[in-house]
């Protein structure tokens, strides 16, 4: 993802940079890296309470690094098979599964689609998508009480083993309905997209900037409800632009099918022509 | 909401780096945009490490504000709620984050168990250490 100080220096071991030393050397480190880690330096400066036999081991390990390495491996496997992957995220009830069902129906016969279905306790979602010509790999993220809040790269690696990549053009990952956690985890997709329903309110991009910044397209769904709501599309677009100036907006009604062609065009834009 | 899985990752990294040592404090630098709830992370930590070698180790969170730098005028500003990512000085939309997305295990305070023999990691000359650390901080 390139969002962190990466440790890409050829070390396989994720603790490659851990090393320990006595305290008298720490000040040299602090001054060296003051510009990089102000918060870290502040606490390193506190040597009070140290006793003999105690020491500080500096590590600098990105906790997301393992996920990111697996995500890169997923992406490499997809690339090798010539499959394009889209990570589709949303809040619960945005109409993601309805949009997906319409998408599969529209692409059947032209684009070979695989779906990784990760929403919580979703045999229901999988049933809604069955019979539409797509391969479906179901991740049961629920264990009875809500379940996982997001999909991560190890889960996707497992789901990919349940799909025949050689016979696919496109994989759509239906992430867990949640505007927080899924934005944090690269799963190996090529592009991220989200479904947002106009029933959710115009301020959502400002409340969940990490999610709205992570995607390249926002599908604005349930536009058929506009006559019954006070939704201000211009305000929503201004809020979105404030956190993600590059994001495309596609207005659709997954229920009526209005605007879905533009979404299909965005999806197909990632496919290598065959 | 994924604090538990983050704590599992964290505990794994700490365990790998501190085999056989008694861990007192685990220092983690967390960026504001990581959407981690400090209380939830601390709570998750206590039950993730319970019954393991890290039981009783304290989690010290060092939060880093989200800072946006302007590509046009160079102005740095802390990201404010509800304000978006545009430059607060010149209004440009061409900005990038310089901090706020960290989630890094930075250091662990350890001591040897009282009854264990002296067992310090090999001492290295200071300049070499700094070289190693620099390598960790900057991408190649």
Summarize the structure in words.
The complex is a heterodimer of chains A (274) and B (140). In chain A, helix 5 (123-129) links the parallel strand 4 (113-117) and strand 5 (135-138). Chain A is α/β, with parallel strands linked by helices and 274 residues long. In chain A, helix 3 (65-81) runs parallel beside helix 6. Chain A has helices at 26-32, 38-44, 65-81, 96-107, 123-129, 153-161, 204-207, 209-214, 233-243, 260-268, and strands at residues 19-20, 54-62, 84-90, 113-117, 135-138, 170-174, 191-197, 217-221, 248-251. Chain A has 10 helices and 9 strands. With 140 residues, chain B is an alpha+beta fold. Chain B contains 3 helices and 6 strands. In chain B, strands 2-1-6 form a 3-stranded mixed beta sheet, covered by helices on one side. Chain B has a 3-stranded antiparallel beta sheet with strand order 4-3-5, with no helix packed on it. In chain B, strand 1 (22-31), helix 2 (38-49) and strand 2 (58-64) form a beta-alpha-beta unit. The longest helix of chain B has 15 residues, at 3-17. At the A-B interface, strand 1, helix 1, helix 2, strand 2 and helix 8 of A face helix 1, strand 1, strand 2, strand 6 and helix 3 of B. Strand 2 (54-62) of chain A pairs antiparallel with strand 6 (103-111) of chain B.
SSE blueprint:
The complex is a heterodimer of chains A (274) and B (140).
Chain A: E1 19-20, H1 26-32, H2 38-44, E2 54-62, H3 65-81, E3 84-90, H4 96-107, E4 113-117, H5 123-129, E5 135-138, H6 153-161, E6 170-174, E7 191-197, H7 204-207, H8 209-214, E8 217-221, H9 233-243, E9 248-251, H10 260-268
Parallel strand pairs in A: 3-6, 3-7, 4-5, 4-6, 7-8, 8-9
Antiparallel strand pairs in A: 1-2
Chain B: H1 3-17, E1 22-31, H2 38-49, E2 58-64, E3 67-70, E4 76-78, E5 95-99, E6 103-111, H3 126-137
